[in-house]
Amino acid sequence: MKQDIFKKPKHMTSIGGQALIEGLMMIGPKNAAIAIRKPDGEIVVEKRPVPKKGRVSKLPIIRGFVGIFKQMVLGIKALMYSAEFVDLEDDKDKEPSKVDKFLDRILGDKLQDVLIYISVIFSIIFSVFLFMVLPNLVASILPVDKSTGVGTLIYNVVEGVVRVGIFIGYLALTSLMKDIRRVWQYHGAEHKTIHCYENEEELTVENVKKYSTRHPRCGTSFLFTIMVVSILVFSLVGQHGLWINILLRVVLIPLVAGISYEIIKISGRSQSKIARIINAPGLMFQAFTTREPDDSQIEVAIEAMKNVMVENREEDRW
Q: pLDDT at position 214, please?
């Protein structure tokens, strides 16, 4: 029987996750668990503490952007950890480069943390250029009177359409890569396992297989929501010169991300018709970022989930 994704589960958990290289990470209220399938078939699990929530975690809008940044750092650390298990025979005998030796001598044990934060910053800059700056450059060539409210709205709608087009193209191209398709399978295993847990069924491969690979609280849905919210927010600030437009978009990213987080948080736990409409496009886009997993991948997801579950389910309610 096909699962109704919009049907309210018995228990709406706050546990989320992220697909990795030959594994995935589940993030619970107290710790994160990274489960990786080694080349020899063994599943290794490592637990890591989740960054403590400060006062900002209670502030609407602000908590969204801060939480996203923290999760990006946690996610890149997990991704780098999973990469250590990939069998790279060609790299085993390579000598460290002069640059590697220099950085290791200067930064020592802090080298990995510095590289992780650089990666996060670079990822943000790349995303801003690809999904914010480039669509604005394309929309700027339109012969639209941007001095009127209607003109500004048309300009931002076109910019949003271009942004969505780039997003779809990016997902479609990455899905052609074999390694990425395996990551999408682990992403599907993550969602199916969370569904099973939320419906309070025993975490077995057979039970998990019954559920959908799509979930309303997915990061793909969040990204799509950001694109829609950005059209509305950028329309309110009007249109100016090219560089002013780009600067405003960069400055307003925390606001757009924060509003999008609140929308996903509300719609993710609601079964109303409005929530279904809001969730529908994001669920549709998950066709690009999830695939049906095999049994071995589901086993990895189950191991990760078991290591973040708490005895008192009230502690992880969404």
A: 92
